[in-house]
């Protein structure tokens, strides 16, 4: 029983470890690897909460651990990624600006955690840090096709959108995880088509994680459809 309750926390810690590895890859100049690890973190983040509910293993520890993991994987790691790929040319100013992203993200997480009306809503107040970090990872992954100025604009916009009062739909009624579903569902296909023949540039884990996650999404979709029937 105790092991069953720790399973969701293992996924959360896996998410945190992906963030750490992403920072390491970015520092080593392997930016696409770093971006993919953030996306894998999105997969794990979308699964831990649902597993906790399925296993009846919700806990205060798990919720706090999830926030700590999110600030690393979707706050610190993307900011390092953007710094090393573009902001580095602005020296100290670029480093300072890149550091704003986890600051805004941490405030967004803290505000969500203390919100008394966060349950039962069909929307988020401000862009979730998971989505914001995933968008920066995608911009880096396909950076060869995206102007640097666009990355700067999106980076700045996401910082303010995270702490804004704009209502973002949560899609709770959709029988799929709400974080990164579209991104992760098509990730394997995109990598195969666009980067076919260059698999050595990417961590092999993506070729294990993507099919398993797509199978997980398919299971949830079928399960949700059968429940409605």
From TrEMBL:
E.C. number: 2.7.8.8
Compartments where found: Endomembrane system
Keyword hit for Zinc: no
One record GO biological process: phospholipid biosynthetic process
Positions of transmembrane segments: 20-44, 92-109, 121-139, 145-164, 176-195, 201-222
Keywords: Lipid biosynthesis, Lipid metabolism, Membrane, Phospholipid biosynthesis, Phospholipid metabolism, Transferase, Transmembrane, Transmembrane helix
Keyword Cell cycle appears in the UniProt entry: no
One matching Pfam family: CDP-OH_P_transf
InterPro entries: CDP-alcohol_PTase-I (IPR050324), CDP-diaglyc--ser_O-PTrfase (IPR004533), CDP-OH_P_trans (IPR000462), CDP-OH_PTrfase_TM_dom (IPR043130), CDP_ALCOHOL_P_TRANSF_CS (IPR048254)
Catalysed reactions, as listed in the record: a CDP-1,2-diacyl-sn-glycerol + L-serine = a 1,2-diacyl-sn-glycero-3-phospho-L-serine + CMP + H(+)
EC category name: transferase
Main location per the UniProt record: membrane
One Gene Ontology MF term: CDP-diacylglycerol-serine O-phosphatidyltransferase activity
GO cellular component: endomembrane system; membrane
UniProt cross-references to PANTHER family, sorted A to Z: CDP-DIACYLGLYCEROL--GLYCEROL-3-PHOSPHATE 3-PHOSPHATIDYLTRANSFERASE-RELATED, CDP-DIACYLGLYCEROL--SERINE O-PHOSPHATIDYLTRANSFERASE
Name the record gives this protein: CDP-diacylglycerol--serine O-phosphatidyltransferase
Gene name for this UniProt entry: pssA
């Amino acid at each position: 029983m105790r092991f069953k309750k720790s399973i969701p926390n293992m996924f959360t810690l896996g998410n945190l470890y992906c963030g750490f590895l992403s920072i390491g890859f970015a520092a080593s100049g392997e930016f696409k690897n770093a971006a993919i690890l953030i996306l894998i973190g999105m997969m794990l983040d979308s699964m831990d909460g649902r597993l906790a509910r399925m296993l009846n293993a919700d806990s205060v520890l798990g919720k706090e651990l999830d926030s700590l993991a999110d600030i690393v994987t979707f706050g610190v790691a993307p900011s390092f990624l953007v710094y090393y790929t573009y902001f580095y040319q602005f020296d100290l100013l670029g480093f300072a600006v890149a550091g704003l992203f986890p600051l805004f993200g941490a405030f967004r997480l803290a505000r969500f955690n203390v919100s008394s009306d966060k349950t039962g809503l069909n929307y988020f107040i401000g862009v979730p840090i998971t989505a914001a970090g995933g968008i920066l990872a995608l911009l880096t992954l396909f950076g060869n096709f995206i102007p640097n100025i666009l990355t700067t604009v999106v980076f700045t916009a996401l910082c303010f959108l995270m702490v804004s009062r704009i209502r973002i739909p949560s899609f709770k009624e959709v029988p799929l995880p709400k974080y990164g579903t579209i991104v992760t569902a098509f990730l394997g296909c995109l990598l195969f088509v666009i980067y076919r023949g260059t698999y050595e540039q990417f961590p092999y884990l993506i070729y294990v994680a993507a099919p398993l996650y797509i199978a997980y999404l398919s299971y949830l979709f079928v399960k949700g459809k059968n429940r409605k029937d």
